[in-house]
Backbone:
């Protein structure tokens, strides 16, 4: 169930101890985890245990500082990448097909949408990334507002940007968008119209720097 | 702590009483006041819908989005070097500080480390950005409280910092100077000496503000005990920067989550204030400006020699992975969560901006206060609209 | 009896016309002078900028430009406003300023009317502006204006009281309510038998003077008591919805009232139009000399400029208080102090 870090040459005792404590005390709630020694720690928790994990982290592990909560849409963009410069298309020809399948990031994932939250323990100075899967048919998760009131606005943002429901949130009004806006802009299948209407010109910085330039090129 | 619980109690009682008056006695009628989106006190286009009884706020409900530019979506169709242009505009007063965490996160994914001289230059410009930002805060605080003169001094003295920024980067507000693997240029000749002179001006400005504002009884009467944020509440709302240090929490990402920049090579202090009120937050910012001056001065004295750019490929492709890097920006914790799938562009960028969290406490904080205190509290929370809306 | 006795031969309409003209001059000239000198220039220097420089030499014509600009602007009345009340409010504010000017003496004969209840009259008509401000706040149909108007009403009424009480000390010492007689009392007064300076009441009534100037600051709704206007809170308070000529009237009212209050304070506390008796001796004129009808206005103007300087200096230096702090300050600090001041003045008056 665990994918260990590829190169554990740096020992990271603090994070390992934290991971140990979290996995042993939360049991099955932690589905998967990922540790980059010296950098960061990710845990993926079960959807229905999200609130429980939040309470545990705040009360038992003293993760009192709430940093943010957001979501990730792992669907590869159906509009293609539509951003490669002419010069790079040849290099990238292979990767186009590869990108078609959905790949989740650290700590894995089974669903298209994932919740991503980050909390800090100010005593040890460690941050912890918490992920949770959101199943496509329920599209919902329990709210953290009861534990971290600051999650309220972040959940509203995730709600309007991804269409994720948060059970237990007092009012999931749109935070940014006007009331009659349709769609969830940060979903990958929401087109960025400006890009579709006017395709990307490509990497502009492909011409050589003056020092690298050939005299022949300058003459022509 | 007794004062804090008293205040919460009082605010609660007052809100209840106000509600009762509105609902039961028919002679007073509640009033809904739209503060903003065009209002002199909102630094842009924040709108606060306040339900008032007389001048007391029963309920305040911030409405944002007038300046939402969708940066998180836009970053998905831009290459990494292009993103810095966008993120410059998030918190437009401390632009350079917005670039740094993004570049650091990308560097972390690419496993590149900028050479020490580049890290020094970044740190120095970062701190200059903070000085310019908070200088303006100190002036603006006066305006919000009715003293019109300090802001002119703030603009006058910030000019020195902006000139130095322009001399070093070519941009007064939006330097766009940080690159993956280093910085664009070295400092121009004579820059270091000039910067030291500018810092002296800023120090004088700090002393002036201490006399003009912080020493003023009216200022103290308007800010002490106003908008008290207890530390635990502030933390659970995710407040950061001077807002949380003003509540006595000793937490500064520059010291506690070092990310490669040169802060550990200078002697400096994280200032905190136990009161948690508007005065405390402002005072902490004043001290931070002074501390930043000292950091810059020390770093300028110990500039390491060497290159300013690491070896980076010509076309930047970031390997697949995820990274979150946050730095202590003038407004608080500013971080980027980058998800890369190994292409030219990020797959997803979550921008964690400080003002968004700092403002999310406002409905809680504004309940039961009076209209003049609403302005004081908003001014002392210090937000930039671009940083809330992104 | 009045300044215009010189012109007894001209008909009634003529003398009335001259009075109106002089009245306009007394109100508008100091307003223009203080706006240019202090609002445009002194404040600019305090804030390390130059202020207007382009209109006329050293920006001296800026005022005309501003007036011209205001006159050309569209006179906007909000759709939901109570039109008549809205239109009338600025005139009432300005009227109180003109009425105050009526009783102020500028020389032994240079005065509009010599009321025996001059102090009482001046302070009474100064409160008329409250009605205008309330009307403006209410009729604008704007919540900011309403809050501003109500704040102004509460504040002006609260500060009437310390102002009146501060003046009572002067009245006790002078033994008269007549402003002209108060000036003479100051000329005739002696400090421990030394009459060379006269007795400007600022020396004995320094507490009263302080309270009076604080109350003036509040009456004028200037920082630190500018909550009714409070730009960062209420946009512009009761003036928010006004534009063009009507705004100009509020603007003139504000600055002219400052000047008139400064005139009043100089009459009450600084010896009015008179110069100290030893200077009179040097010049070889006495207090009833006709020379003072010319010299007096100049003396008054210089005293007025001195006091308005202080008013604007404070205005552009301090932050503003909160409404409840202002009320507390009035009722718990200023009024008790002024009552004590009256008691002490009265006791000493009886004792000596």
Residues:
């Amino acid at each position: 169930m665990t994918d260990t870090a590829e190169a554990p040459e740096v020992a990271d005792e603090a994070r390992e101890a934290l991971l140990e404590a979290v996995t042993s005390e939360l049991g099955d709630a932690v589905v998967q985890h990922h540790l980059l020694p010296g950098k960061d720690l990710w845990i993926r928790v079960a959807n229905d245990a999200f609130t429980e994990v939040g309470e545990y982290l705040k009360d038992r592990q003293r993760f009192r500082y709430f940093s943010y909560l957001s979501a990730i849409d792992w669907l590869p963009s159906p509009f293609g990448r539509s951003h490669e410069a002419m010069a790079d298309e040849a290099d990238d020809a292979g990767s186009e097909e590869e990108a078609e399948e959905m790949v989740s990031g650290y700590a894995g994932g089974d669903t298209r949408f994932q919740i991503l939250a980050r909390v800090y323990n100010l005593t040890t100075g460690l941050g912890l990334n918490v992920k949770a899967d959101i199943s496509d048919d329920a599209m919902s998760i329990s709210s953290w507002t009861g534990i971290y009131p600051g999650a309220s606005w972040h959940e509203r943002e995730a709600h309007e940007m991804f269409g994720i429901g948060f059970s237990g949130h007092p009012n999931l009004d749109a935070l940014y968008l006007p009331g009659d806006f349709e769609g969830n802009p940060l979903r990958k299948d929401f087109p960025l119209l400006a890009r579709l209407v006017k395709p990307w010109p490509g990497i502009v910085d492909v011409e050589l720097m003056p020092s690298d330039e050939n005299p022949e090129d300058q003459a022509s | 702590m007794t004062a804090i619980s008293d205040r919460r109690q009082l605010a609660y009682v007052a809100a209840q009483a106000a509600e009762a008056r509105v609902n039961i006695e028919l002679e007073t009628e509640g009033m809904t006041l739209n503060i903003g989106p065009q209002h002199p006190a909102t630094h842009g286009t924040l709108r606060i819908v306040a339900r008032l009884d007389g001048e007391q706020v029963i309920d305040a409900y911030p409405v944002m989005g007038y300046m939402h530019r969708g940066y998180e979506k836009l970053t998905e169709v831009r290459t990494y070097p292009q993103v810095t242009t966008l993120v410059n505009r998030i918190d437009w007063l401390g632009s350079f500080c917005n670039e740094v965490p993004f570049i650091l996160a990308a560097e972390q994914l690419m496993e590149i480390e900028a050479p020490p001289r580049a890290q020094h230059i970044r740190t120095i410009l970062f701190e200059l950005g903070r000085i310019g930002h908070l200088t303006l805060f100190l002036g603006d605080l006066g305006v919000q409280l009715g003293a019109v003169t300090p802001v002119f001094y703030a603009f006058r003295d910030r000019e020195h910092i902006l000139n130095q920024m322009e001399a070093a980067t070519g941009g007064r507000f939006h330097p766009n100077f940080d690159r993956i693997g280093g910085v664009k240029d070295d400092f121009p000749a004579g820059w270091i000496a000039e910067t030291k002179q500018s810092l002296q001006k800023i120090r004088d400005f700090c002393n002036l503000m201490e006399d003009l504002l912080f020493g003023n009884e009216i200022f103290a009467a308007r800010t002490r005990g106003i908008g008290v944020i207890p530390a635990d509440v502030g933390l659970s709302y995710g407040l950061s920067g001077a807002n949380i240090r003003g509540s006595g929490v000793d937490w500064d990402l520059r010291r506690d989550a070092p990310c490669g920049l040169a802060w550990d090579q200078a002697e400096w202090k994280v200032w905190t204030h136990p009161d948690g009120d508007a005065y405390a937050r402002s005072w902490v910012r004043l001290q931070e400006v002074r501390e930043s001056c000292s950091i810059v001065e020390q770093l300028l004295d110990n500039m390491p020699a060497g290159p300013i750019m690491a070896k980076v490929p010509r076309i930047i492709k970031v390997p697949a992975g995820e990274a979150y890097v946050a730095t202590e920006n003038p407004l608080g914790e500013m971080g980027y969560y980058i998800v890369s799938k190994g292409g030219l562009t990020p797959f997803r960028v979550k921008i964690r901006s400080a003002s968004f969290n700092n403002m999310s406490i406002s409905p809680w904080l504004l309940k039961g206060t009076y209209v003049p205190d609403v302005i004081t509290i908003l001014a002392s929370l210090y937000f930039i609209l671009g940083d809330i809306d992104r | 009896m009045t300044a215009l006795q010189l012109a007894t031969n001209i008909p009634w309409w003529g003398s009335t016309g001259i009075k109106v003209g002089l009245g306009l001059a007394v109100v508008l000239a100091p307003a223009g002078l203080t706006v240019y000198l202090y609002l445009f220039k002194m404040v600019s220097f305090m804030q390390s900028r130059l202020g207007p420089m382009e209109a006329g030499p050293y920006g001296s014509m800026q005022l005309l430009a501003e007036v011209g600009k205001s006159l050309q602007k569209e006179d906007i009345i909000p759709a939901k406003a109570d039109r008549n009340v809205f239109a009338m409010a600025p005139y009432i504010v300005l009227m109180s300023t003109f009425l105050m000017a009526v009783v102020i003496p500028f020389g032994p004969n240079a005065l509009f009317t010599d009321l025996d209840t001059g102090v009482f009259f001046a302070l009474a008509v100064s409160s008329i502006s409250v009605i205008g401000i309330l009307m403006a706040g209410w009729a604008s149909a704007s919540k900011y204006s309403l809050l501003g108007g109500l704040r102004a009403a509460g504040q002006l009424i609260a500060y009437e009281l310390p102002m009146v009480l501060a003046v009572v000390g002067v009245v006790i010492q002078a033994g008269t309510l007549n402003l002209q007689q108060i000036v003479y009392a100051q000329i005739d007064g002696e400090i421990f038998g030394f009459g060379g300076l006269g007795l400007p009441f600022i020396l004995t009534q320094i507490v009263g003077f302080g309270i009076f100037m604080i109350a003036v600051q509040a009456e004028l709704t200037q920082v630190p008591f500018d909550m009714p206007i409070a730009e960062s809170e209420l946009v512009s308070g009761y003036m928010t919805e006004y534009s063009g000529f009507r705004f100009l009237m509020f603007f003139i009212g504000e600055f002219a009232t400052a000047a008139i209050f400064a005139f009043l304070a100089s009459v009450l506390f600084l010896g009015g139009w008179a110069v100290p008796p030893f200077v009179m001796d040097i010049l070889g004129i006495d207090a009833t000399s006709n020379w003072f009808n010319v010299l007096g206005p100049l003396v008054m103007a210089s005293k007025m400029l001195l006091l308005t300087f202080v008013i604007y200096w404070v205005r552009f230096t301090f932050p503003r208080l909160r409404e409840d702090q202002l009320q507390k300050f009035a009722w718990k600090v200023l009024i008790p102090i002024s009552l004590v001041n009256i008691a002490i003045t009265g006791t000493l008056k009886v004792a000596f």
The mean pLDDT of chain C is 84.
